[in-house]
Amino acid sequence: MNRKQLQKLGVPPDCVKLAVQALTRAAQQDQGFGLKGKRAKELVGAVLGEPRAYFEDSVWGEFAKELVADAEQPALSNIDYRTWGDEIDDAAHAQMRQACLVPTAVGAALMPDAHLGYGLPIGGVLACENAVIPYAVGVDIACRMKLSVLDLPVETLDSRRNAYKEAIMGGTRFGVGVEHHPKQQHDVLDRDWDVTRITREKKDTAWRQLGTSGSGNHFVEFGELTLEARDDELGLDAGRYAALLSHSGSRGPGAAVCSTYSAIAQRNLPRRYANLGRLAWLSLDSEEGQEYWAAMNLMGEYAAANHAVIHRLVTSLLGAHVVAGVENHHNFAWKEFHHGKEVVVHRKGATPAAAGELGVIPGSMADPAFVVRGRGEPSSLCSASHGAGRCMSRRQAKDTFRFNAVRNDLAKRGVEVLAAGADEVPGVYKDIRRVMDAQQDLVEVVARFDPRIVRMCGDGSKAED
DNA sequence: ATGTCC
């Protein structure tokens, strides 16, 4: 009997392989019994009819157990999600509805900067029970923000402009595959990179890329931080400060971890869930799930180290010291308690916003970023947006904007862009002020950061220096 | 967002 015949008989697709193995064993034990025989059909039919009666059978036991396990696989969920903001496209909603079908999903929310992503939309928050979804964390695992407030008078942003520009140009590296020469040092290299094969193999890449910014929406910029009132936790009085803000992640190694474990998850995805595709999950009880969890957390430390090195290099070139700081992941998964039970909360392009938790939400190269304090709103799973959110694709942006023209406009508005592409100009983003208005119940604004000197990945160069 | 992976 072949696969097709077995399935016609009622064998679930995920059990066909074991049925074939059982038939082969049966044929070996009984010389007069061929695989095509009517008897084969009868035997398979009998096991299908009462699988539990065959659990101890040396020929049919394994197949029988798989039949029962397959029937007991959890059904699709169908949970609800709340949405903040009203400028979210249908495609992002469609992805969120798919995510709400994931069998382990128990909570979901969509942030006001949401837009289309792989698997879960960017700006999507998804809580699962005892399972992790690599593509609900995202390709750039632990993509993150870091703000450092400097001990230099805010006026030096103008009076010492060249020193600031040289510090950014000398201390940062942008581009796909870009590395530091010589390699930088950080304690993260002393962590255990042998937790998975892929982290072991990517450790040297990680070292070479340590302290680099990559491409896309990543940036390093100087700007002016304004506090309307003293903030004790930040340790800053009301006033204006020179500050350094960066957006970067786990570079090549994080992408390799994501693709490795999402491929495993998708390969293991039972056929009945096939249309969930890139939302494939790994049980935290499985070896693969534990490996991903360990690798993801290492990438979290690595991304934090990248920012630490960037800030170390840039502030050291500038001759500045750091007097206060805020940082947070916005592509990550955490074990947290919500509604009385422990769940895995995936935030993919979403800022953790538990009550009292500080975070940074950037706008665009010309619009303000905000230091925020979470309000711990339960229905958002204690989350907020991670930025303004794109309202135009990179492709469309290249056809719509000429970067040099935009750059001249921005210069008149007091923002000097050292390098960037047309796909990251302010016009490709929603209005950050509207996005902040839409999430007043999620975060309170602690400070505003206005960009003054900005570096992103330049156009037409994949590995510029 | 990354890098060219049988």
From TrEMBL:
The active site is at H386. InterPro entries: RtcB, RtcB-like, RtcB-like_sf. It catalyses: a 3'-end 3'-phospho-ribonucleotide-RNA + a 5'-end dephospho-ribonucleoside-RNA + GTP = a ribonucleotidyl-ribonucleotide-RNA + GMP + diphosphate. One of its GO terms (biological process) is RNA processing. Its EC number is 6.5.1.8. GMP binds at residues 217-221, 330-331, 362-365, 386-389. It is an enzyme of class 6 (ligase). Binds 2 manganese ions per subunit. Mn(2+) 1 binds at D140, H218. Its cofactor is Mn(2+). One of its GO terms (molecular function) is GTP binding. It comes from the Bacteria. Pfam families: RtcB (PF01139). Keywords: GTP-binding, Ligase, Manganese, Metal-binding, Nucleotide-binding, RNA repair. Mn(2+) 2 binds at H247, H330. The keyword tRNA processing does not apply. This is 3'-phosphate/5'-hydroxy nucleic acid ligase. The gene is rtcB_2.
